[in-house]
Amino acid sequence: MPRNVYFSQGAKSEQNLYEDITIEGLKIYGHDAYYIPRKIVNEDGIFNEDQLSEFAASYAIEAYVQNDGGYEGDGELLSKFGLEIRDQITLVIANRRWEQLIGRFLGADSNYDRKIIRRPMEGDLIYLPFVKGLFEITFVEMEEPFYQLQNLPTFQLKCELFEYGGEAIDTGFEEVDTYETQFAQRETLNLSPGTGAIGSYIIGEDVFQLIPNLSVSPNAKRKLFAEVATWDSPNLRLEVYGRTFDCPSASPNSTSFSFSTSPNINFATKGVSSPQLLTGLSSGAKYYVSSLGDQAQQFLDMKDTDSDADNSEFETIGNNFIDFSVANPFGLPDV
To answer: Which residue of 26, 27, 97, 227 has the lowest C-beta tally within 10 Å?
Structure first.
């Protein structure tokens, strides 16, 4: 054997000491961070992509910022789509601490597929309160430093500033949940009273409506969920965001549904006829959906959530030279 047999680099006691010193250093020189795992609600089996994601939990952990000279990446980039901020950051967290504070909980939760792969995953989020920034993990480096004592004590997380894409964010941590409240596309629902209609919706609560003619088991009806953004009680006008479907494995998937405007629809389950009431989970409020907000109103709603959005301006100018009455205004009219 060429190595000196009297010196071992893989003793468990030395590995534990090395990890203890690493963790102590991270606690001294690191920052508080919140790890937010991504839950795949509706996965596309063909492209292996998440059609619908949800962030429903957050875990506190210490993290060391490796690039102490500032953000990396392309920074501020002026593209044809406007100003893009592509800041990147590299964080270091301890392997053992991640397992203690995060990994064991995700492994025991059936909503997350983390029983086999017990490590930070690409696509998960990290929130750093000291810069008030939400970052998405793009790559996890697991072999640096490279087996100095025959072990891997840390993870290096390559992160990029998170770009919101319609995901449901309900972590219970207000600073993170506001991303969905501010940037989610809203839908306008015009409601009407009727038999069984009662109450007042609460801002932030979930509302649901039974989906007609779709059941997975003999006693289960599918539901369409959303979260209340604004509630105009005198005019019975409700704005919601984060529309999700409670059964992603059923066909069609969640992106195919919108709220029903019919006052009475027969369900496929047991042939029961029941009104399609929009019900608040917390308030118990119930109203019928009389109509959906028109497209022009949707543009105005988006303008309210993003002061820099030019949706209504493009719509107004486009009507002067684009004929939206045909099926394909950008190609052959009859296609």
So the answer is: 27
